[in-house]
Amino acid sequence: MSDQYVPALRQRFLEDMQIKGLQPKTQTMYLRGMRDFTRFLGHAPDSATPEELRAFQLDMKERGVGAPTFNNRLTVLSFFFSATCPRPEMKRHMRYQRAAKKIPVVLSAEEVVRIIEAAPGPGLRYRAAFSVAYGGGLRASEVTHLKVGDIDSDRMLLRIEQGKGRKDRQVMLSPNLLALLRDYYREVRPRGWMFPGRNRIDPISTRQLNRAFGVACDFAEIKKQVSPHTLRHSFATHLLESGTDIRVIQVLLGHAKLETTTVYTKVATKTIQSVTSPLDLLVNREVGPG
Fold first, then answer.
1. Domain 109-272, what fold?
2. 5-91 topology per CATH
3. pLDDT band at 96; cut points 50, 70, 90
């Protein structure tokens, strides 16, 4: 393949991703996947053979690449061989891995309180950001990209624009969270982004949010392996334990499939603990009255 054609192939791949409407972050991930495949091949990917594709998958397994990354690479290649370089026969040689399903880590209500109270200063920025994540079940990127105009105090709603899957949704705005956000607003006077970065033109980054969350967890002496996303898991689990219908939780989280939301039934410990064991029913029957 000529040297001039390789950049042209990459450009076409970029254009195909734009046509599909992939987010910049996803495009970066796709480019990384194609780079890994091309490096393994040692030549341009459009001339890859089924045997080379098989060898690439075998190499990933031998290197101990986890199922999520393994499947991600195949998703990228599936897109490349369907959109950029149509070769349907290549997709028949892709062997997706079954990922181990892990139940999410969940914080207790008391642990959430400790983390929020330990939010680093100065000011209320991270205390407000953590409270938004837990109070509305937001993802870290949704917290950082929240705008002042997304706070609807008249209808007591938070508007989430272009969340995962490029979908808008609304979540409840609690009176306590509204009061905290008003205190924070009076302190910072943000314009545009609710949580502006240092230059105030861009929002704070998810890396900054993660770092601040880690500091708060250290101060709060949280021993679990957690991240800001754990606040979202805890939001869903605590709602389920309080009796909220799982379909309502699905809408609040912005899940396309109910199956995704049902994972929280496995960690709703209060709900599990309240179930009477059939052994107890059996013992009670044997004892009987009188």
1. hpI Integrase; Chain A (1.10.443)
2. DNA polymerase; domain 1 (1.10.150)
3. very high
Say which of 125, 139, 145, 169 is annotated catalytic.
Answer: 139
Within 10 angstroms of residue 192's Cβ, the number of other Cβ atoms is 12
Mean pLDDT of 109-127: 95
Residue 266's identity, in one-letter code, is K
Band (3; pLDDT cuts 50, 70, 90): very low
Q: Determine how many CB atoms are found less than 10 A away from the CB of residue 232.
A: 21
198-204 average pLDDT score? 89
Annotated active-site residue in 125, 127, 232, 238: 232
The catalytic position among 114, 159, 164, 266 is: 164
**132 touches 143 (CB < 8 A):** yes
Catalytic (active site) residue 134: no
185 catalytic per annotation: no
Task: Report pTM.
Answer: 0.73
264 catalytic? Reply is: yes
